[in-house]
Structures are given as structure tokens and as C-alpha cells.
Amino acid sequence: MFVRTAGERDLAAIRALLVETWHATYDNIYGAAKVTEITDEWHSIASLKARLTRPNSEFLVADDGKRIGGMAFAATTKDAKIVMLNQLYVHPACQRQGIGQALLEEVEASFPEARTLRAEVEEANAPAVAFYRSQGFLPAGNTDECGGGSGLPALIFEKTIG
């Protein structure tokens, strides 16, 4: 798979990837109904479309020409030296093939002025915690509002970049 910038024509496939990945990952943590509620709000076509034009951001997909196997979205914070990795998801059938690492590397390269890359990770999502640790992220705290206003707790990980 190669990593490229997402476009409007990708949004339906990105939404499908996110819905399937979220259910596979989080149904056992939050329950299927809560996951559906979250994906309907956070991963609607309208929500995804708004990210395509967000200033100081990068919206990426991993694509093999037949399917989108992963996606990432990151944007600078109020401090341009800090980038928030809002989303990095790899389809369950495509995990452990280097796609997450390739997406992460492209995110890092997309923000040459940044010095810190930050991610919020559900503590019960052990594979994600292990992935971020393996990529050089270190624990930097926690939040009770993962994604901003969700009421979901998360660990905060940070990595020095640039």
C-alpha cells in the first residue's frame, strides 16, 4: 500500500473503514451501541469532509489501488510546534503489515516545523498502546475527554519529532 493525501472521493471508503475498525476494536470496551453512536457522529461523511479543508492539517490514506487499508488525520494545535494525531486506523485485515508505521511516518514528514506529536489512546486498547510505544511515543498524561468533549478517558502519548 502507498500513502497519499485523502480526497473527497475517498470519504465513503474511509467511513466504512472507520466503522468496521471501531466496531472490531471498541465493541468489547464500550458496547456496540455506543460505538455506533460515536461512529455516526465522529465518522460521518460531513465530519470527514470538513477535515479535508482544515488548515494546518494532513488527511492521509493507505491505498493499494483496490482498497483503502488505513487512514490518518493530524493537525497542529494552538502551538504550531505540537501536532495532534487525531486518527490513525488500519483495517483489521490489514494490521501488522507496516501500514500504521507508514502513515505515521508520513504524518511526521508533513509537519516539518513541529517538535511534538501527540496521540490519545484508549487504555484498554492494548494493541494500540503497544504500537505507539513501539514507535517511540512515551506516556505524557491522561484525559477524560478523548477527542474533545466525548467523556471518554484516554492515555496521552507524545513523541519528539523534527
Describe what you observe in this structure.
With 162 residues, the protein is α+β, with helices and mostly antiparallel strands. The chain has helices at residues 11-30, 32-42, 45-52, 99-110, 126-134, and strands at residues 2-5, 57-63, 68-76, 82-90, 116-121, 138-143, 154-160. Strands 1-2-3-4-5-7-6 form a seven-stranded mixed beta sheet, sandwiched between helices. The radius of gyration is 15 Å and the shape is globular. The two termini are 25 Å apart.
Q: Structural class per helix/strand content?
A: alpha+beta
N-to-C CA distance: 25 Å
The count of strands amounts to 7
Helical proportion, percent range:
25-40%
Please describe the structure with a list of short key phrases separated by commas or semicolons.
alpha+beta, 162 residues, seven-stranded mixed beta sheet, 7 strands, 30% strand, globular, 5 helices
Put the structure in a nutshell.
The chain is an alpha+beta fold and 162 residues long.
How is the secondary structure organized here?
Blueprint: E1 2-5, H1 11-30, H2 32-42, H3 45-52, E2 57-63, E3 68-76, E4 82-90, H4 99-110, E5 116-121, H5 126-134, E6 138-143, E7 154-160
Parallel strand pairs: 4-5
Antiparallel strand pairs: 1-2, 2-3, 3-4, 5-7, 6-7
Helix pairs in contact: 1-2
